[in-house]
Amino acid sequence: MAMTDAELAAHLAQTAGELLQAVRASGMLSLKALGKAGDATANQFLVHALREQRPDDAVLSEEEKDSHERLDHSRVWIVDPVDGTREYGEERTDWAVHVALAIDGVASVGAVALPGLGIVLRTDRPGAVPAAPERLRMVVSRTRPAAEALAVAEAIGAELVPMGSAGAKAMAVVRGEADIYLHSGGQYEWDSCAPVAVARAHGLHCSRIDGSDLVYNQADTYMPDLLICRREHAAIVLDRLAVAQAG
Description:
Distance between the termini: 57 Å
CATH class of the largest domain: Alpha Beta
Order of helices and strands: HHEEHEEEEHEHEEHEEEH
Strand content: 15-25%
Structural class: alpha/beta
Number of strands: 12
CATH topology of the largest domain: Fructose-1,6-Bisphosphatase, Chain A, domain 1
Strand order of the largest sheet: 1-2-3-4-5
Shape: globular
CATH superfamily of the largest domain: Fructose-1,6-Bisphosphatase, subunit A, domain 1
Number of helices: 7
């Protein structure tokens, strides 16, 4: 029996993660070479597998030359072979593999593998998001937290939780390790498509930081900002964001 789109996304994300773990376990590469080898290995696998399994769909990958022919497709697979190359090379666990399917611009199906933790979160198997603590936790970049995120965290009294890749941050909210992921430092479609698909499937709020919709498979793949949080926290975060930006 053929795999569903969600099953395919999960299978590919998990397998790519296993390949990346094997490349890292070889112990034969420098930090810089490891990142390049990992990206290339995972990308080749994901792109070839998708083109074989879904030949009528388009593919957009961070590690593949873009073609605007994808703009003529309703169904576009958007992948990030290694989200968090630095963390992957440093043998941390806060890196991810993203495999998503955008349908008519919407992040509809996807999986995010966290190979360092042995976990794959997917749209077809949503679980309950754990309850938030009294003091909210905001996940931010461990190297360059966005000014808007810091301002909102201060305004609502949130605890900052530094973390690596975008996928790891988003899945921290899904897994109940954090409550808000606010990013305004610029990303690309492959950084957020799979995390947004998974987060939405788990009932979370996902939007731009002005509250507008996230739209994928655009000619320009740059996406300036992102908000993922519990639905009950969205209004206050967006309100504080507006105040911070106005100031």
